[in-house]
Design a protein that fits this description.
Blueprint (H helix, E strand, L loop, with lengths): L1 H8 L14 H17 L1 H24 L6 H6 L1 H8 L1 H11 L18 H30 L7 H9 L2 H25 L2 H7 L4 H14 L1 H18 L7 H19 L6
Helix pairs in contact: 2-13, 3-13, 5-7, 5-9, 6-10, 6-13, 7-9, 9-11, 10-11, 11-12, 12-13
């Protein structure tokens, strides 16, 4: 309780936001509402969503160009870790549409003028640190399995990974540790970025509220994490292009999930 009190006082609000309990029906409703936001402005939102797959394609090219092929999968999987940051503009568009305000592409960048931009930047910095720690961990796992010798080719790399005992260890250990990183990000950010857009609170209060939301709803939040991961995997086939639809829908749905989990301020 003392820790909660300290974190709460770190923000501009005296009281912590009230967290509700939700069920599977709330997840379904959030996804439906997210798709409705996407359908309302498909041209603008698809354009926003293309930023995500384009970054993926650029990173893919960098991987092949600089002979760091073993990090191709960790880099792609790492997008799950920075997804909440990439979706900031989508949260803002959903917030404006919900409030009956004008929704145009340029309004996605209103995030930069948010009163909470300092807190948003701090939380974004934390996500980037987690992302780079994940990449370093993935590299260390590869080196432990195969040493420092670079992969000679794509076919050689795939044979190394899928046809050797070291490769099996790499898959099991890499996916296990990657899951822990993804779980950490889910717990820290499932409602924290939308909360910062909606209210002026500190990063500590936003993170604590997100943690409380997961603790209060472990089953639904675990299912939400699986839905997000599954849709991102599907959207990555082929060449990340499906993310132009998946990312906007998930971004908007996350805003609506926040609305169902965190009780609005009474006016």
């Amino acid at each position: 309780m003392a820790a909660q009190h300290t974190l709460a006082n770190a923000g501009s609000d005296v009281d912590l936001p009230v967290v509700r309990r939700i069920g599977v029906a709330d997840l379904r409703a959030a996804l439906v509402a997210g798709y409705a936001d996407f359908a309302a402005r498909p041209t603008h939102i698809v354009f926003l969503g293309l930023i995500y797959p384009l970054i993926g394609l650029v990173l893919t090219r960098l991987v092949f160009g600089y002979d760091i092929l073993p990090l191709l999968f960790p880099l792609a999987a790492g997008f799950v870790l920075i997804g909440p940051l990439a979706a900031l503009g989508l949260y803002e568009l959903s917030r404006r549409r919900e409030a009956g305000l004008d929704v145009r592409l340029r309004h996605a960048f209103d995030v930069l003028r948010s009163p909470s931009i300092g807190a948003i930047a701090a939380l974004a910095g934390l996500l980037l640190v987690i992302f780079f720690v994940w990449i370093a961990a993935a590299d260390a796992i590869y080196v432990a399995a195969f040493g420092h010798a670079p992969a000679a080719s794509m076919s050689g790399f795939l044979s190394q990974v899928f046809q050797t005992s070291e490769g099996v260890m790499l898959i099991i250990l890499g996916n296990g540790i990657g899951f822990l990183f993804a779980l950490l990000v889910l717990v820290l950010t499932v409602v924290s970025f939308p909360l910062l857009l909606d209210r002026q609170v500190s990063p500590a209060v936003a993170i604590l509220t997100s943690v409380r939301a997961v603790v209060a709803n472990p089953g639904p939040m675990a299912l939400w994490g699986l839905i997000v991961a599954g849709l991102l995997v599907l959207g990555s086939i082929p060449l990340f292009l499906g993310l132009a639809i998946v990312v906007p829908v998930l971004g908007h749905a996350t805003w609506h999930l926040y609305r169902r989990v965190v009780e609005p301020v009474a006016h």
